[in-house]
Design brief:
196 residues, alpha/beta, five-stranded mixed sheet, 11 strands
């Protein structure tokens, strides 16, 4: 089960994906909405056993609700850089983590932000792409601090080399998830990022 608890929120936020299963985790927390209530809306019981927060990166729109979620559910946050406030444990490049019922490999993919991670499961053929790529060939901004276009292109290329061409689901930091030939959307993002 993968549910976007930020779906329909009108405030400026990222997507926030609740991944249920053996290891129930929240991928990013979003910002500017009540994520705690949002999480509880997705389960039958108010006693949701959230086990961890996993961060794709630490831009404010992805971590604005971090402290509230950590406090409400008594969980730690995992991300690339523990020097960032709120990140309790480091996830290293190529480290394997369990999200829901599947094992994912964490891929360090800077260019949008230095601490950016994508998570890919070859078993379920699912990619959490954060703000690296989006639907229809869009890609992460590089005009913010730590942004770098050439590095972003390298990160997109790394994803293309790593994920299967029959990728089943692409879950992005903003906008809709992609289930119709998602690999093609990543390929298009690689082309578009080179042209701008």
């Amino acid at each position: 089960m993968i549910s976007n608890i930020a779906q329909g929120v009108q405030a400026f936020t990222s997507n926030a994906f609740l991944v249920g299963g053996e290891q129930t985790v929240l991928v990013d927390t979003g910002a500017n909405f009540d994520a705690v209530s949002g999480l509880r809306d997705y389960v039958d019981s108010p006693d949701l056993e959230l086990e961890a927060v996993i961060l794709t990166h630490t831009h404010p729109d992805h971590v604005g609700n971090l402290e509230a979620v950590k406090t409400a559910f008594d969980v730690d946050a995992w991300g690339y850089d523990t020097d960032v406030d709120g990140v309790d444990h480091a996830i290293e490049d190529e480290q394997r983590v369990t999200l829901g019922d599947h094992e994912y490999v964490a891929l360090h993919t800077p260019g949008h932000k230095d601490d950016h991670l994508c998570f890919y499961s070859s078993d379920s053929n699912v990619l959490f792409a954060g703000d690296l790529v989006f639907q229809n060939g869009s890609f992460g901004r590089t005009d913010l601090p730590e942004g770098d276009r050439a590095t972003l292109v390298e990160s997109i290329d790394r994803i293309l080399e790593r994920v299967s061409s029959d990728l089943r689901e692409l879950h992005t930091g903003h906008g809709p998830s992609v289930t119709d030939e998602p690999y093609g959307h990543v390929e298009l993002a690689a082309k578009m990022a080179r042209q701008v």
